[in-house]
Amino acid sequence: MLHSNLAFAQEADTLSTDIAIIDKLFGFADDLVDKVSTDTWTFIPAITYAPETSLGIGGRAMKVFNLGDLASKTKTRPSSLPLTLLYTLKNQVIVSGEVDLWMDQNNSFLNSRVVLSDYPFVFSGLGNEIIEEEKYATRYLYYHLLYHKKIARGIFLGPRYEFRGDNIYQKAENGLLESGDIPGSNGQHLSGLGISMNIDTRDNIFQPRKGMYHQLSWMEFHSVFGSDFNFTQWVFDLRKYHAINEKQVIAGQAWFSFTKGTAPFQHLSLIGGSDLMRGYFEGRYRDKHAMVYQAEWRTPLYRKLNMVLFGSGGQVANQLSGFNFRQLRWAAGFGFRYKLNSEGLNLRIDLAFGDQSAFYFGLNEVI
Fold first, then answer.
1. Which residues form the Bacterial surface antigen (D15) domain (predicted)?
2. Fewer beta carbons within 10 Å, N or C terminal of the chain?
């Protein structure tokens, strides 16, 4: 009996020691984030990973702030300004900046994003089957600007402008792009104007537990606006959040993209990457139309550490009649989140399984 009590006491001491070590590790992580950040800026080394880029190393800064006077700040959603500089082991250079501004006690919203990149990449052909893979390299500039005004409770409407210019300076010899038969294979300038509507009833923009977030857009790319290609594109991004209990959340997304006219391959509807169908290379499948369904289950683990399980299904098609449930591509995986600030900004690590095993490391939630 005495021996059993001693053994139990030793096990309890060992468990207490393990918990103390874990607490120290999390405490060290919290202190490190606090030391490299300020009250409004969060600075972290930008160590990212995705199949499209391999390992990326650089710097990332995120400013989270509230606009308005002291009385209205508590009623206005937080605005954000992320800045990123990355160099990847696939010799890609990416410089990006984005601003989300919530103004006038959430009655006005402005979003703008600019990306400069030197980007060696892979083209896998068009359609729901891989024809062949070939490497190409492009230098591109991307920019968009949208402004929304609240027209009803949770409903925002406004204009959107989009521009992209590509200079493709390297193609695979005797490949599909070198043949010149693929629209956009000789580079392109896109310029389009359209209308965007958001239906947003989320209780938190970084970590929603309830509500919906639907983004609907219609874009017209035309020579009148300085575009090399004339086409129309509709995108419907529908998201819903439901709290299972006080701590666990289910997030769901249905995403559709439809294209009419002749669009360059860079701007076709596509699936794959860190946002749509983790577990598939970005742009692995692309065509005029695409649809993706995704869901996540989120639960806390320990202190600022959370866990997610996710699954997705999607496909592309040249015609709407080409969508077929039996041709859906499937993916699933799990990941971890580490909360960086009080607003809910997360560090994200995901492991996904689709037509490949893929590891992702970045910021913010996918859905």
1. 186-363
2. N
